[in-house]
Amino acid sequence: MVSGLSHDAPLANRRLSVGSPFALELVGVGRTFGSLVALENISISIRSGERRAVLGANGAGKTTLFNAITGDFPPTQGRVIFFGEDVTRLPVHHRIRRGLRRTYQKSLLFGGLSVLDNLYLAIRGSMAGRFSFKRPAQTDIATRQARELARFVHL
What we know:
Distance between the termini: 26 Å
Helix content: 25-40%
Shape: elongated
Largest sheet: 4 strands, antiparallel
Radius of gyration: 17 Å
Structural class: alpha+beta
Number of strands: 4
């Protein structure tokens, strides 16, 4: 959790209230694998709500860039800043809990569950106590956030 913010804060507002004008900033990001330079001096600032495309030929480093941002293969130089917080050295699971994660070309949902249930599980999976077997109450924070998220993306 971003310090100073509670899990009670509405999901959409929690990340926007951190204070940085940018959702994501890359400052001089690079990634090497031994002597192979895969990324070099990548800098970009993206405001909340902005959309950007990353284009390039096979082997140009697109996937490596996303892996550096999400921490799957952390950058060997530079900084990754997510809503004002430097997450460069945070492990992947801490980045996920802050809401920073990539999606893959093939994503699977739990087919027998509703959209709301799938959203609930995604939100619950990033929270402390996520392995609890207790059935959530209607007032459960993750249940509220799942409903809020569904409304936010017009589901």
